[in-house]
Amino acid sequence: MADRTGTFDGVHRRNLSKLLVLAHLEGPLSRARLTAETGLNRSTVASLASELADLGLVEERAPDPTNRVGRPSPVVAAHPSVQAIVVNPEVDAVTIAAVGLNARIVVRERLEVDHLVTPAETADLVAGVLARWRTTELRDARIVGVGLAVPGQVRSDDGLVRWAPHLEWTDAPVRELVESATGLPAGVANDASLGARAEHLFGAGRGVDDLVYLNGGASGIGGGLVVGGRLVSGTRGYAGEFGQNRPGIARQDDRRVPDGVLEDEVSRARLLQVVGLTHADEPTLAAAIAASGGLAVAEELARQQRILATALGNAVNVLNPSLIVLGGFLATLAAHDAAALEAAVAAQCLPVASEGLDIRVAELGENRLLIGAAELAFARLLADPLAD
């Protein structure tokens, strides 16, 4: 039996995918809502939901007793046992977490390092942590894969890390190494691009079709672009390298590196130095900056804001987004004086290009890269819930 869109099996798989994607992206939904969203009839939705439940991918819950309008409709939610292992290797730490199909962090661990980890070390760390978690927090989990958010240029065709300069990785086959060490399928992408995806799907950019995302991490500044509702990756997957652009610096005494790029001037390391820290995770750095009343800290924050504003103004003139999202230490920088940053950006944009522009900090906070990396691991399952 077939129809014009393909075989019955193909249509069935696509319909299963529709329901699972909705449960993944939207959270718990009633069958009535799923019927409205998919355009399928109620009996088909009921059958598909039951099948996904039998596969262990969703769970069906009793109707909300407070909803007394119309016939009560069971609620379908992503099954909490379906999880991905996610990894963010950085110059000062390797962060590993488990993320549920409901986009929630199940368990997270930051492993601080005193040297640059190699791709092989990264794979071994992931395997070791996963083995430990399988006997504790993830004892009952169904792990579907591994997603890695790497601060570097990652070839989209095969996940090869072509160049991660701060980690000193060149043509690193980290995907294959992780797959060999864990026995799980793995995916690799640029960390900032994954942050953009996460914020677009679940965070500050949810429902926004045109946005620019900039991520500030230990390795510098990366970015991601959503244009017309789609993540822009470029020909090979290298789009979004805002940190490598040379910013215009109006005040010469603001410059710290002759002919430096954006991430040389707008720098997490410089913020750590000015508050007297050698290393810290994002919340610790933000707290240290907030607690400091020193003039040197205020001046460094203002200097970095001025330079960042120029870079953002250029992006607005070129791309005309409706939203800019700032993550990592850039969120801390923006929150220091949001009004000043917005005014400085607007002053460097074409007036019509900046009309209606909104600047927000990343809603997912320090979890944004991890949630983005989970999308790599879930991609195959979401595309075809019946895939082996």
From TrEMBL:
Its BP terms in the Gene Ontology are: regulation of DNA-templated transcription
InterPro entries reported in the protein's UniProt record? ATPase_NBD, ROK, Tscrpt_reg_IclR_N, WH-like_DNA-bd_sf, WH_DNA-bd_sf
Q: Which residues form the HTH iclR-type domain?
A: 19-60
Q: Which residues form a coiled coil?
A: none
What SUPFAM superfamilies does its record include?
A: Actin-like ATPase domain, Winged helix' DNA-binding domain
The record lists the membrane-crossing segments as none
Protein name as annotated: ROK family transcriptional regulator
The family database entries (PANTHER family) matched by this protein are listed as: BIFUNCTIONAL UDP-N-ACETYLGLUCOSAMINE 2-EPIMERASE_N-ACETYLMANNOSAMINE KINASE, ROK (REPRESSOR, ORF, KINASE) FAMILY
Instruction: State one molecular function term (GO).
Output: DNA binding
Q: What does the sequence similarity comment in the record state about its family?
A: Belongs to the ROK (NagC/XylR) family.
Q: Name one Pfam family in it.
A: ROK
